[in-house]
Design brief:
Layout lengths: L2 H15 L4 E7 L6 E8 L3 H7 L2 E3 L4 H8 L4 E3 L10 H7 L1 E11 L2 E11 L9 H77 L3 H25 L7 E3 L1 H12 L6 E8 L5 E3 L1 H19 L2 E13 L13 E10 L6 H4 L17 H11 L3 E7 L2 E9 L3
Parallel strand pairs: 8-10
Antiparallel strand pairs: 1-2, 1-6, 2-3, 4-5, 5-6, 7-9, 10-11, 11-13, 12-13
Helix pairs in contact: 1-5, 5-6, 6-10, 7-8, 8-10
The structure holds adenosine-5'-triphosphate (ATP) and magnesium ion (MG).
Amino acid sequence: MTLAEVGRVAFEAVTSLTRYRHSWLAVLEPESPGFAKILQVSGSQAELVLDEVPLVPVEGDEMMAELIRSEGVVVVLDARTDPRTNKEIVSRVHNRTILNVPMRLGTQVLGSFGIGTYGDEGVLAPTPEELDALVVFSVQLSAAFERVRASERHRRVEQERGVLELRLEALQRVELMGVLAAGVAHDLRNLLTVVQTNLEVVAAGPDPEALADARMALRRSAEICGQLLSLGRSQAPRRERIDLDARLEATLRLVRPAMPTGVRLSHQAHPHAPVIGDPVQLDQAFANLIINARDAVGERGTIEVVTDAVTFAAAGKKHPGWARPGHFTRVSVLDSGAGVPPAILGRIFDPLFTTKKHGTGLGLAVVSSVVQQHQGLVNCESTPGHTRFELYLPAAE
Ligand SMILES: Nc1ncnc2c1ncn2[C@@H]1O[C@H](COP(=O)(O)OP(=O)(O)OP(=O)(O)O)[C@@H](O)[C@H]1O
Ligand SMILES: [Mg+2]
């Protein structure tokens, strides 16, 4: 329940039990010391009162001063003539009879609850029953009011905690960069050790195998550096018109020699719109997906790279939750491997997340950052034997 709702309930009750058609609720808040804040007004004068006197100064207003001291109802029969009222306010909102009762919680004054008449309604003297009704409601209102305030305070505390948690997350990201740097440095050092020991072997006499190992370690180091660079890259990506299928063919030619003989790697091109983007970044994203697929299928299986066009309609509710309306060119990489277990599906794009003995866990983080830089979408669906990674790039034109 909100404060406004509590007020509304009290207003309805008091107008049904008394002859007064106007009621108001004012609160003393630490944020506006020296003023009573009109929280809510009911009746035909509501807008006028809220516009004209949102804050009633307590200082110099005898009626307010008395109200804060009082235990019971402060009766002002005619605000125009009663010496205790603030005449400036009365002339603006045309009060006549004012019946105010303080809302107390223990010794603390929370505010006041009042009923009365305005303008042409003239003066209306309260009956003892009406005064009683007002007091009873103010007691109930005080209790409800305090409950609502407590829950609002609680909500504020929760909100602040939310903000703190966000900050913590940001800090953890910074920490993650540290972990990332440490992890990468570790990998690179291991690879450099491999290079060094093998070169020492070669220095002692020709050894093709040692040379090949050194080369392999250097290539892997270069790969890691390339991925790190693209992950940390903040400069704007190149924007060129790209022939996706031609580039995919080139990437496949590069990775084919690294495929076990039992793996069938194919490319299916369906009609699609051209895309504008950074060819180097996109190549890297596709290569990362294809290499993951190779790791997933092992010694035998199939890997298919498919391009096609997809439109997510603006009005249609048919497209999945992660999508957004628009025309896209889609590149899908499908493999027949064991699949991504559902439990880790939410983490595979996180930097450093890997289930592989020698993985860096950067591959999909790079994919996701490249896709983001191209205002695209990425999606993964996986069941054992059927894994599909899809990149959606905005169609040019
Ligand atoms: N096609 C796939 N099939 C099954 N699991 C996958 C597939 N692609 C990625 N994964 C899972 O996602 C994890 C993260 O992939 P990512 O490419 O980011 O890192 P990695 O492949 O482990 O390491 P690196 O890319 O440095 O070799 C993988 O370790 C693997 O568990
Ligand atoms: Mg990978």
